Amino acid sequence: MFWSSISRSTSIINLYAFLTPREITVLTMFAVRANISVGAMDEIRDSLLELGVTRLRMAGINGYTSGHTREIVYRGVRHVLPLFPEVELEAIAHDEEVDSVVGTIIRVSRQLHGDGYVIVTPVDQCYRIRTGVREF
């Protein structure tokens, strides 16, 4: 197969130099977005880094779920908060890596808190801001 002749360190930019248009469609990239609980953030990040995911972003968000609220007591006054703190994780992965990335996120999240969801969407183009080079 074509991929066996290419080392893992070869960049995607260099691959375009000698690929035919039919083979370029094989280089499909996907964005895996997951909303996970805050307690699972470190374990999922470490597991994805062990898989070799190099494009990873995490952001703190507040999520709303109908019917669920949480109460806090601040200075003796009870407050009802409809928003829950969550972490939005986004990883960019090659076509053959998507199943392992999604599986890792689901497996680790179920072990710890069993909450959240995962969305997989295709990525058409990616450009480096500093250089303006198209990555894939």
How would you describe what is shown here?
With 136 residues, the protein is of the alpha+beta class. It has one domain (27-123): Alpha-Beta Plaits (2-Layer Sandwich), CATH 3.30.70. The chain has four helices and six strands. A four-stranded antiparallel β-sheet has the order 2-5-1-6, covered by helices on one side. A two-stranded antiparallel ribbon has the order 3-4. A hairpin with a 2-residue loop joins β3 and β4 (77-81). α3 packs antiparallel against α4 (98-112). The protein is elongated. The model is unreliable at 1-17 (pLDDT under 50).
Structure in a nutshell:
This protein is an alpha+beta fold and 136 residues long.
C-alpha Rg (nearest Å): 19 Å
CATH topology: Alpha-Beta Plaits
The helix-strand sequence is HHEHEEEEHE
User: Structural class, from secondary structure content?
Assistant: alpha+beta
Q: In total, how many domains does the architecture comprise?
A: 1
Distance between the termini: 20 Å
Number of helices: 4
Helix content: 25-40%
Average pLDDT over all residues: 78
* Uncertain stretches of 5 or more adjacent residues: 1-17
Per CATH, the architecture is: 2-Layer Sandwich
Question: How many extended strands?
Answer: 6
Can you identify the CATH class?
Answer: Alpha Beta
Q: What gross morphology would you assign? A: elongated
Largest sheet: 4 strands, antiparallel
Give the strand order of the largest sheet, numbering strands 1, 2, ... along the chain: 2-5-1-6
